[in-house]
Design brief:
GO terms for molecular function: DNA binding. The protein is mainly α. It has 9 helices and no strands.
């Protein structure tokens, strides 16, 4: 995993849980600038720091060695990050995750990571109404799954 992928994943998990950098830093026993640098793809975190962040974010730390993962990543756009901190977003994602039989926090983090890839594909930043239309579509799909 590349450094920027770690940062993207950390930001997605933090945003998905509606947390600020400061609250995660306090729970992890790390500094705000340290976490901000990690989220921006800078720094070289220790396993101990990553474990502390995982605990603070309510998730597990998994370290794997193997062939490079070709999965693309992109930074979470600011508009999407703001949206991810709202109560409405968390409720919508929880409903969609329930409909899909998935853990809401994990689903939220994966959703934010995948949604972050849309702006570069479309060649433009998406606005808040655009993100809500996308979430509404995901909610409809989760509620009316084909079996």
């Amino acid at each position: 995993m590349r450094d920027e992928q770690i940062g993207t994943q950390l930001r997605a998990l933090r945003t998905a849980s509606g947390r600020t950098v400061a609250s995660v830093a306090a729970d992890a026993g790390l500094s705000v600038p340290y976490i901000a640098n990690l989220e921006n793809g800078r720094g070289n975190p220790t396993v101990k720091a990553l474990r502390s962040l995982a605990v603070a974010l309510g998730t597990d730390l998994r370290i794997e060695l193997g062939k490079p993962d070709a999965a693309p990543t992109a930074p979470v756009p600011p508009e999407l990050a703001r949206l991810g901190r709202t109560r409405r977003f968390r409720a919508t994602v929880a409903t969609a995750a329930e409909g899909l039989g998935q853990d809401p926090q994990e689903f939220s983090a994966r959703l934010l990571g995948a949604a972050s890839l849309l702006a570069p594909v479309l060649g433009q930043d998406l606005s808040e109404p655009d993100w809500w239309r996308l979430l509404d579509a995901i909610l409809l799909i989760s509620a009316h799954r084909s079996t």
